[in-house]
Amino acid sequence: MKGGKTKADTKSKLGVKISKKDKQAAKDPNKPKRPPSAFFVFMEDFRKQYKEKHPSNKSVAAVGKAGGDRWKSLSEEEKAPYVAEAGKRKEAYERNMETYNRKLAGGADDDSDKSKSEVNDEDEEGSVEEEDDD
């Protein structure tokens, strides 16, 4: 259950206040970033278009508001390419997370999956060449 902590939980035994940052584990810089949703994929294109039409605008809020309004006005067919791109990015993220989790579970192994497959491919190629000689 989120948010179930009381004020007493935020202090150590010595009465020193512990910040939320101190409690959290350090983030791993090698962990893949989460993929953007369809809206954020849309916003990547929309920001470029908006900047061309309004070069003097410096307000991030104005761009976000205009993008949100435009997204709401789009039909499902107009949103489809952005939804598809977000799906592709999500699949790539899931593959990257599987690789990342395998590396974590494997410990300090520096062998990549590619190097393992190359070794296996060489063994298979050698056996195929021997069969061709017969």
Mean pLDDT: 79
Oligomer: single chain
Please indicate the percent range of residues in DSSP E strands (runs of 2 or more). Answer: under 5%
The N- to C-terminal Cα distance equals 67 Å
Task: Report the uncertain regions.
Answer: 121-130
Overall 3D shape: extended
Number of strands: 0
What would you note in describing this structure?
The protein is mainly α. 64% of the residues lie in helices and 0% in strands. It has 5 helices and no strands. The protein has helices at 20-23, 38-53, 60-73, 76-106, 113-133. Helix 2 (38-53) crosses helix 4 (76-106). The termini are far apart. Mean pLDDT is 79; it is low at 121-130.
Compact description:
This protein is mostly helical and 134 residues long. The protein contains 5 helices and no strands.
Describe the protein's topology:
Layout: H1 20-23, H2 38-53, H3 60-73, H4 76-106, H5 113-133
Helix pairs in contact: 2-3, 2-4
Descriptive keywords:
extended; 5 helices; mainly alpha; 134 residues
